[in-house]
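User: Can you help me understand a structure? I only have the sequence.
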Amino acid sequence: MMPLTYADIGKTYFVQKVGGKPEVRKHLENLGFVNGAEVRVLNTLAGNIIVNVKETRVAISKEMAQKIMI
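Assistant: Let's start by predicting it. Here is the structure, written out as tokens:
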């Protein structure tokens, strides 16, 4: 298990765990980052990470990505 920040671009992973404060976890769950969800890093741009989760592109900060374990 590793944080999403260490994911290779273009490779598919599955969310194992979402950490952080309850409000942060809830926000990430609303974006689609739930246990078992398929995620793929599309690109990194200016410290942000662009991922494809549940067939939707989402840009999240590096700090948020560190709370998502794959």
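Now, to help you interpret it: Residues 22-31 form the longest helix (10 residues). The first strand starts at residue 12 and ends at 14. Let me know which part you'd like to focus on.
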